[in-house]
Amino acid sequence: MCPSGFSLSSTAEEVTQGIDGTGLTAIVTGTTNGIGTETARVLALRGVHVIMGVRNMVAAKDVKEAILKETPKAKVDVMELDLSSMASVRKFVSEFNSSGLPLNILINNAGICATPFTLSRDNIELQFATNHLGHFLLTNLLLDTMKKTERESKKEGRIINVSSEGHLYSYPEGILFDKINDESSYQKWRAYGQSKLANILHANELARCLEEDGVNITANSLHPGAIITNIVKTDYDASSLCLLDAIGKIVIKSVGQGAATTCYVALHPQVKGISGEYFSDNDMAKPSSQGTDTDLAKKLWDFSMKLIE
């Protein structure tokens, strides 16, 4: 049992039990499968107005219908968002801001995993573009709306980056963010690891900037745990998946358990005022040494700002 009172086996419903999210609005990216779907469902169950930012609008509408069938009074909207395209991110934010809705919670959840070397529409390596840069731009463009909401509602804003296991991504030879487009040295799992480390560093530097600005908005990152969802299934053959299914009950979390830490950081009062931290299994944890490197976080921030200009 963690100091929070929850454990790695706690579910998203359990960690939000008794919490009333009525009056809060959240954007959640990547909600058409896995922990994204469960995060949207549980937040809606707790009364949060959920905006689902998705690439696949057809699949998202099915998710929305399932949520409304379970919780008829739920507030759920679907908006198109392709995080690998900066034009799509800008269009999404423009349409969201035009709606006049407030924004209390931003959950940067969407991601792709271990893809072959591919360039995005903006000629940036696809995993870095989708997992980090799209969310970096999205967050940057939504900050004014979040600050306005915080001032008017007097409620703490929360930004959550869903990352991965923080200690897996320490490289003796250093981080090569500035060489992400070098196909000759591309390794798909290393590229994935760097993009997820970037999620942690982004949250840390954002937390520092928000504190410096004196606004009541927190920024944190988290590891959801080992969950077999569509993000990783494409990288395993049939026999490997059978083996994973066989041992899954022992070492792999359910989707409900996988979404728990996200929902905990997004809604629980225990997390109030906590910023620039890394969470795992519904409590604060420690990422790798590179995950706490303030100079690396600033380097990544400056590099990312140049890319979105």
Protein architecture, described:
This protein is α/β, with parallel strands linked by helices. 46% of the residues lie in helices and 13% in strands. It has eleven helices and eight strands. The protein has helices at 12-15, 34-45, 57-70, 86-99, 126-153, 188-213, 230-233, 238-251, 255-258, 260-267, 294-308, and strands spanning 25-29, 49-54, 76-80, 105-108, 157-162, 217-223, 278-280, 283-285. The protein has an eight-stranded mixed beta sheet with strand order 3-2-1-4-5-6-7-8, with helices on both faces. Strand 7 (278-280) and strand 8 (283-285) form a beta hairpin. The longest helix has 28 residues, at 126-153. It is globular and about 50 Å long. The relative contact order is 0.17. The model is unreliable at 230-250 (pLDDT under 50).
Shape: globular
β-strand number: 8
End-to-end C-alpha gap: 45 Å
Low-confidence stretches: 230-250
Count of discrete alpha- or pi-helical segments spanning 4 or more residues: 11
Could you tell me the strand content as a percent range? 5-15%
Mean pLDDT: 89
Strands of the largest sheet, in order across it? 3-2-1-4-5-6-7-8
Radius of gyration (Å): 18 Å
Query: How do the helices and strands follow one another from N- to C-terminus?
Result: HEHEHEHEHEHEHHHHEEH
Structural class designation = alpha/beta
Most strands sheet: 8 strands, mixed
Helix content: 40-55%
